Amino acid sequence: MRNLGYTIKYAIQRILLMLLTLLIITLICFVLIRMLPLKELPIGDPHTDVILAQREAFGYNKPYLVQFGIFLKNIFTRFDWGISDQLYFGQNVADIFLSKLPATMLVNVYSIVLSIPFGIILGIVAALKKNSWIDHTISTLTMVIISVPSFVYAFLIQYFLCFKLGWFPLLMKDGTDYFTWPMFRSMLPAVMSLSFGVIAGFTRVTRAELTEVLTNDFMLLARTKGLTKMQATVRHALKNCMVVILPSILSEFIGIMSGSLIIEKIFSVPGVGGLYLNSINALDYNMFLLLTVFYTVIGLLAGVVFDISYGFIDPRIRMGSKK
């Protein structure tokens, strides 16, 4: 119970620090964006009056700190992030964001689900076959895959699997029927492109942790009690490795979303990644600010989840304790 109290206290401290960091980053981005010149609106369009009225309501002619206060008030009271004045002229940016979010979530969820078993199994094999040709092969491929950006795999998959072999469509299918076979099949190229680096990461972490655990004294004790090498590995070694592997899974599940921007653009995934890049090109400031805050939350949350999860996974770790 005392350890749980330390963990909860530490979690609260980390979350408060994350919120403070998020507030500071949001303020900086907000001020920098409001300092940029506004693009001219088309004359005579019915949405122009709506956008001008909202700019007035958001206090565009007031000091930046006052504008930021109005901005926060609208978010917390109505979840109102403003209106898109370039990409989706006159539409609410929060509604557009929420409509694009499922595609991004599914691509990233499929990627992490595919990566976990492959990465852990390869890491276990490499650790059990330490210093053999199998270990050297897996370790070399792991370093090569980690070193290559994910968009390189995207182009290779598009060329060989989509264009040459014709196994998959070049681009993701339009529509919102996310749980149908044609949609899943069209997602697979993007999913595989994201999975290569994640599989290599899990392989490296699993191999490093399992190799260290296998050399501990308690593993020798387990073998002297009559357990085979496989039984000792499954019952004792892997259990200890999970202290490091599980937090990495949780953080990777959140953090992988920040790396899917270019992949979504390459495969025309109708998600928030492509929307983010389009908002930058179109100078759609409200859309850009919402997505910047979203990806900032993703990055901060990944670190917090990674740290806090240690205390819940292994009760021996006293998070926040001074001893």
Describe the protein.
With 323 residues, the chain is mainly alpha-helical. It has a domain at 100-313: MetI-like (MetI-like fold). Helices cover 75% and strands 0% of the residues. α7 (181-214) crosses α9 (229-255). The model has no long low-confidence stretch (mean pLDDT 81).
Record the SSE blueprint.
Elements: H1 2-35, H2 46-57, H3 64-78, H4 93-128, H5 133-147, H6 150-164, H7 181-214, H8 217-224, H9 229-255, H10 261-266, H11 272-282, H12 285-313
Helix pairs in contact: 1-12, 4-5, 4-7, 5-7, 6-7, 7-9, 9-12, 11-12
In short:
The chain has helices at residues 2-35, 46-57, 64-78, 93-128, 133-147, 150-164, 181-214, 217-224, 229-255, 261-266, 272-282, 285-313.
Query: What's the name of the CATH homologous superfamily of the domain at 100-313?
Result: MetI-like
Number of strands: 0
| Helix vs. strand class | mainly alpha
* Global geometry: globular
